[in-house]
Amino acid sequence: MKPATRRNLIVVIAATALSLAVVNLAIWSKERHLAQGEAVFLELAPVDPRSLMQGDYMALNFEIANRIREALYQRRSEVDERHAADGYVIVRLDDRGVAHFQRLGSVEETLNADERRLRYRLRNGQVRFATDAFFFQEGHAERYEPARYGQFRVNERGEPLLVSLHGTELELLGAMER
Q1: InterPro entries, per this entry (predicted)?
Q2: I need a labelling partner for 21 at 20 to 30 A (CA). Which of 6, 146, 149, 169 fits?
């Protein structure tokens, strides 16, 4: 085997191994987040009915996102860079684990025992928590129509991951019938 060919083979093998390591680290990180994150429920807010169910996903908007937009608008003249694009909202959890808006916050802020910090992202004027859609198996839209809450797993840094949709009484929607 020529030295140039051998070198190319080594580079390809090293790049493949590095790629696999990065992908597996990302998977491990998300699995850990799901397993160890605290369950927090966010109330859904109405969205444009034409975009609610689009094939195999549901467009999502959260009531707390509306409150964040209002707070940002009220503070627009005094908004600093940390609230301009991404930021943190401080929520209070009720006894069911449902989050209620308290105030805009920061990563350094000390929280009360019933408060949590959630990271949000502002994209194209819309407040997002991890995602703006919930994907499901095609043909199962009717299972998710009564959705009123999204359950997130929130890690110690306040980053939410959407896990499931729930009804008015926080019952899990979309569970397969046995």
Answers
A1: GDYXXLXY
A2: 6
CB contact at 8 A, 118 and 101: no
Q: Where are the beta strands (DSSP E) in 28-157?
A: 38-43, 57-59, 86-93, 99-105, 115-123, 126-128, 133-135, 149-154
In this predicted model, what pLDDT tens digit does every residue of 145-167 receive, in sequence order? 888 999 999 998 899 998 889 99
Instruction: Look up residue 29 and give its two tokens.
Output: 């990180």
Among 48-62, 109-123, 135-149, 151-165, the least confident range: 48-62
Helices then strands (H, E): number in the chain? 5, 9
142-175 as b/e: b if 16+ CB within 10 A: ebbeebbbbbbbbbeebbbbbbbbbeeeeeebbe
Comparing CA positions, the residue from 118, 136, 148, 132 lying closest to residue 38 is 118
- The single-letter DSSP state of residue 95 is T
Does residue 1 contact residue 128 with C-beta atoms inside 8 Å?
Answer: no
